[in-house]
Amino acid sequence: MATVRKIALILGGEPVLKRRVRSATELRLVVEKGLPKSTLERTVRHVVTDRSEAREFIDRIVSPATYKRRKTLLKPAESEKVARLARIIATAEEVWGNPDDARRFLTSPHTGLGGKRPLDLAQSELGAQEVEEELWKLMYGLPA
Length: 144
Hints:
Blueprint: H1 4-11, H2 13-17, H3 24-33, H4 38-47, H5 51-61, H6 64-69, H7 76-96, H8 99-107, H9 118-121, H10 125-139
Helix pairs in contact: 1-7, 4-5, 4-7, 7-8, 7-10
């Protein structure tokens, strides 16, 4: 499992979260309060380099109209989606050993995931669990 510290860094770290996050409990509390709006774009751009594709991906998490209305904080449900995405990114980086290989894995269709892109599956908690299972199979050399 990805470390809470790595997840917090992908979200923007202490400068963005306005506090040091050292435990799962602290991360949960920050997410329940609502993540800063900037964490959404920061997290998506961590893995999606094309601007238009990043915008489309952001729009799937929070509609454009809703995103514009948000002043500073996302709602808890939106924050959970962003934190889940950061968790998947952190896990992929841990398994692959570097951000570029993790990015390629997350943005490319994968046969072990029914031809879907891991990034797309990570939109739901069950899909994210599938992606994590696939990553751990790759990590431990199990048939993937």
